Amino acid sequence: MPETVFILDFGAQYSQLIARRTRELGVYCEIVPYDTPWSTLSLRRPAALILSGGPASTMDDGAPEMDPEIVRSGVPILGICYGMQLVARDVGAELVKLDRAEYGPATLRTTDDDTPLFAGVPDESRVWMSHGDSVVKLPHGYRALGSTARCNIAAMGSAKKKIYGVQFHPEVVHTQHGRAILANFLHAIAGLSRDWQMDSFIERSIEEIRARVGGDKAICALSGGVDSAVAATLVARAIGEQLTCIFVDHGLLRDGEAEQVRNTFRDVLHLNVVAVDERKRFLRALEGVDDPERKRIIIGHEFINVFEREAAKIAGVKYLVQGTLYPDVIESKTPDSKAGHKIKSHHNVGGLPEKMGLTLIEPLRALFKDEVRELGRVLGLPQAIVQRQPFPGPGLAVRIIGDVTEDRLEIVRSADAIVRDEIDAARLEPHPWQYFAVLTPVKSVGVMGDGRTYANLVAVRAITSEDGMTADWARLPHDLLERISARIVNEVRGVNRVAYDITTKPPATVEWE
Ligand code: XMP
């Protein structure tokens, strides 16, 4: 294992962002619950610790605490926001509650020219604050390193103990020199090298997979998406012909995708692929179903049946490869986590391994999405697959509001191809995270040539997002929207009106169903 930084999660919305930034700096890190005891952490020999922010106040009863052994461990520590307050309190600083919390941008003035934490950071720079308490007095051995107009001690540290704290958020893009500050902590203070690289990750993974699988067989469901494609390619590098990929064409993919998956994996990457055409089966199962959750459940269920049937034809399979990513496995024990409401069941191949008695191989468990794309590139996957936007497991079925029929699939598929084509060609900066067409159940009156039409309304959705958890609607240029609209009504039979979805998530979700 590479040298590992652990991020103690105190319930910050930014914990994953801290982890991503750390990895971008070439340092491997993992997020762990805030109350992980030092006796457990020390077994993994942490190279440094970062304490995340969190919604609580250290002065509240029952505020989340970390094991007091942690500040005595001698491991370099960076506390961010709540993390700074906690570490400050634990080393004997004084804190007060502010009359008015400070949220948003502020100007940081560095007050210590010698601190390695701010090497290369100008005397004044913009930072992002979000706090209700403030450190007002530091114990012996600690120095104030920076201030803002409303916060006298906005950064603190002890070079000797290698313990630092920043009241602002270096991980967010709104903090101008946040990346440099994190890099200073990781490289200059904690002495970590940039050894988290894809090449060494690939080598290590291949060895591990070979050792685990031995002479046995594995299967993998290819969905057409990035994660399963990269997972399959990596495992195939390790065990070659012992891996069989199963591609179920459920007929709910986008234009040209099924062919692309078959061609790429079979002919370009020379993987062992079983492709089954089950388009009719899925259409039949979806007949007359318009409830979104039922659609999702039916598709998941049918998929598992087909996959099991195909897997049973391969003798002696012991392993199932899945493209699970790090954000899905982080067991962050956030201080006030409550059981969430189920908004929609995300169906991929959930529940398969238990049902089939197979052991899981999840070679991407430690990776974030952008790292998976990078890995795919290094493994030689084509750009079209590596750069693919996220696409729901139930496919176009959840982009057709109401009944899924062959005709309606054709409409949404053609409209979607136009949306993708135009937005890709526009080479927008920043590029939207996801963009697609939705077929609504609404019909409206129009006029084409000299005749009256009564045809379908297509909605276009384009969003910007970091992870799909929250999203903003993309401010597409009007001329681009105009081209998309004109092409859809002209080229897609059965559509006479186009609307653009300008809702954020929350309150809406990304997909309409
Ligand atoms: P929602 O609609 O929940 O979508 O805001 C968030 C992100 O997840 C994708 N999505 C899915 N991905 N299986 C998946 O693998 C699914 O069933 C599924 N449903 C939604 C969606 O496209 C967006 O990126």
Mean pLDDT: 93
Helical fraction: 25-40%
By DSSP (H or I, 4+ residues per run), the number of helices equals 16
Alpha carbon gap, first and last residue: 41 Å
Architecture per CATH nomenclature, i.e. the level-2 architecture of the largest domain: 3-Layer(aba) Sandwich
CATH topology-level fold name of the largest domain:
Rossmann fold
Quick one: biggest sheet?
A: 9 strands, mixed
Structural class: alpha/beta
* Bound ions, cofactors and other small molecules, one mention each: xanthosine-5'-monophosphate
> How many beta-strand segments?
18
Indicate the multimeric state: single chain
- What name goes with the CATH superfamily of the largest domain? HUPs
- Just give the CATH class of the largest domain: Alpha Beta
pLDDT below 50 for ≥5 consecutive residues: which ranges? none
Task: Provide the spatial order of strands within the biggest beta sheet.
Answer: 2-1-3-4-9-8-7-5-6
What Rg is obtained from the alpha carbons, in whole angstroms?
26 Å
Descriptors:
single chain, 513 residues, alpha/beta, Rossmann fold, GMP Synthetase, Chain A, domain 3, nine-stranded mixed sheet, five-stranded parallel sheet, 18 strands, globular, binds xanthosine-5'-monophosphate
Task: Give a brief description.
With 513 residues, the chain is α/β, with parallel strands linked by helices. It has helices at 15-24, 38-43, 69-72, 82-90, 178-189, 198-213, 226-239, 257-268, 279-286, 292-312, 326-329, 352-356, 369-378, 383-386, 406-426, 478-491, and strands spanning 4-9, 28-33, 48-51, 77-80, 94-110, 124-137, 143-148, 151-158, 163-166, 217-222, 243-249, 273-277, 317-321, 359-361, 434-448, 451-464, 472-473, 495-500.
